[in-house]
């Protein structure tokens, strides 16, 4: 369990850290960029493969547009 300042630290770090300039779509945790971990990795730090899968991202985008009834320009 984290305190409120500990919980907010990564969000603040992401907002102001120059290390992330020009990098979109990265996952961050514990005041750093999250490392990729295998899908069978037990719960813990890291980002699973499906979270960074571009095909899944496109499917989610299409579903989201259809659910809200708005098509955004490409």
UniProtKB/TrEMBL annotation:
Protein name: Short-chain dehydrogenase
């Amino acid at each position: 369990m984290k305190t409120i300042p500990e919980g907010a630290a990564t969000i603040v770090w992401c907002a102001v850290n120059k290390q992330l300039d020009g990098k979109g779509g990265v996952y961050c945790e514990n005041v750093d960029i999250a490392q990729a971990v295998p899908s069978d990795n037990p719960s813990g730090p890291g980002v699973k493969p499906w979270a960074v899968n571009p095909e899944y991202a496109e499917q989610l985008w299409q579903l989201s547009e259809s659910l809200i009834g708005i098509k955004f320009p490409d």
